Structures are given as C-alpha cells and as structure tokens.
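Per reviewer request, we include the raw input and output of the structure prediction for the construct analysed in the revised manuscript.
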Amino acid sequence: PVFAAPAAVSTAAKDPQFTFKLGGLLMYDAAWYQGHDALQGKTTGYTDETGFRRARLSAQGRLYGDWSYNVTLGFTGALNNVSNADPVDIWQASVSYSGFRAMKIKAGQFYEPFSLEASTSSRATTFMERGLPYTFSPGKSVGIGIAAAPTSALYLEAGGFTEDLNSAGNLKKAFTGRVAYAPVDSKGRLLHVGAG
C-alpha cells in the first residue's frame, strides 16, 4: 500500500499579488511476501520491507502577480537511512515569469519538458509506478525554458539544461522540447497527442 498525505498552508486570500503556500508530500510503502521463507537462499529480492517512497516539503507562491516561485526539498534518502545520502535533496528550485500573453519563462531546477508522465505530479499518476518509458526521460535539471500555448489546443515547451543541483560531476548540456496537441477536448471526450 501507498499512503499519501498532501498538506498545504496558504496566504493567497490576503493579497493575490503576493502569495505563499507551504506544502508537503509523504508517501510510505510496505511490502510483505507471504511464504517468502521458502525462497530464502534460492532467489533474491523477496524481503519484507517498509520505507518512504517520497518525503518532500515545498514552498511556492506569486510575487507581483506575474512572478512565481517553487522550492521543493526532498528528505527521502535521509529518512530511509540510505548510505551516503544527503540529508536534504533539492528537488525543485525555480522562478517563472508569466507576464507575456500565452507564454511563460522559467529558470532554475525543474523537470525538462519531455513527456506527459514526467509533467504529471506523483499525486496524480494512474498507477503506483510510472511506465517504463519514464526511465528514459531526462528528469529534473538546471536550466531555462519557455512554454507557450498559441491556441487552447496547442502547447509548446522547450529549454536548455545542465545537470541538476545535486550533481558533483562535469556539467553536461542538453536541449529538450515537447509539443502537445488536443484536437478534441470537450465534456467526456479528450484526444491528446504529443511528442518530446
């Protein structure tokens, strides 16, 4: 089973130009294999375990209406006593500007625009795990990107990136992009196609 406990404290009601929301995400896994004692010594990977899948704390909001920020820290490795794990992992740290019509500019560490699954929050995935193609997605990196929606059915996003803030190696460069088109989007009907 997976237990998720999203929580948020917001100040948006006081001044919509300046908002602050403190949130969090906690997912905890437990696995128990019935009759696994008979498998001991014959195979591996059948061990009863419990652990945190995700443990994050976030702060996000708006500044002067058109600017927004998101800082998300992860504590999963430290809570699971993973050896050599940093006590705090910088999951996301970004600022964005949406003052242009139908366009947004974002800079910092965030997910590269590559696939729908990578763009979907872990709170809203269809299954417990993302699909195998997600393994080949670039993930989150430091960079700058531009997203635009010229029409209600068309979405474009692209950016240039280096490795994430938690990397200690040589910085590699990448350019990624994603286009999505929804020719059918009405009540009870949706056709969405995209490529990254």
